[in-house]
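[Archive record]
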Amino acid sequence: MKRISKRLLSLLPVCALILGLAACSGGTASSPSSSASPSPVSPSPTPSASESPSPEPFAFTQENMPRIDGSTATIPLISAVRSVLLGTEREDDVTVSGTDNAYVNLIDGKTDVLLVYAPSPDTLDYADKQGVKLEMAPIGKDALVFLVNKKNPVQSLTDKQVVGIYSGAITNWKDVGGKDAEIRAYQRQLLSGSQTMMNKLVMKGTPMAEAPAGYVIGEMGGLVDAIATFDGAEYSIGYNVYYYVSRMKLDDNIRLLSVNGVAPSIDSISSGDYPYVNDFYAVIRSDAPEGSPQRILYNWIQTADGQALVRSEGYATAAVK
């Protein structure tokens, strides 16, 4: 299970947003209000043709709040969503299962909604085998970034150099403008959101070199620690998602590399100028009933109000539906 510290779950970044949130009906954005204190959002289910055009607003409570799972990097967003929809303080004990485990939980009926990074092909195959169809809506953007130790003089790599390092074709830093030293290329475990992004956005079918023992890191934070403090850290490289290393696991001993001369930032991710950008998603099962709490939440986070919350948490956002 993944957990985030209390200091990252402060209510302050979303207070201004909460003041402007009101009822949301069928995915339609609402107008700002002037409430003086946090209050729950009350989206309404989309009415059918036989229903009244003004249905009773849906109120989220602790009892009907959908179970939300997701990726480590979406923990702050999950906390913010629960706080806004319930009208409560931010929680300091939000846990998630991690990207692919979260999808498995949804497929198996053990959770209701995901705020999550893209699934691996193996996970999608599992959904097919279980006969479960998923509805996925992009709600934000993040990027795969490459980390080096601050003592490493290399500032930028080309996309071809990145592939060369991780395919094993480039093994010495001197070949990419660094010192004459062997490259220690850390990888993530196969069923992780970061590894899925690595395979899809960077390697694109080129096989990755087999990593030496100890060079495949299970936890996102563990990879940052390896680049920052492990023996030989000066000559190491690894990859992670931008949001996590810039907002959740800050470490002055690491530096993010530019790729093709473009540094990762919210602006370069939003514009697509940084090369390794990918959406993250709200996900529900396609058999979630109309008017169910999970479908109401799924619809709401795609609206202008939902996207404002995503932005307030420091993520790059997707296009508003």
The chain has two domains: 2-45+59-141+280-317, 142-277. The first strand starts at residue 2 and ends at 3.
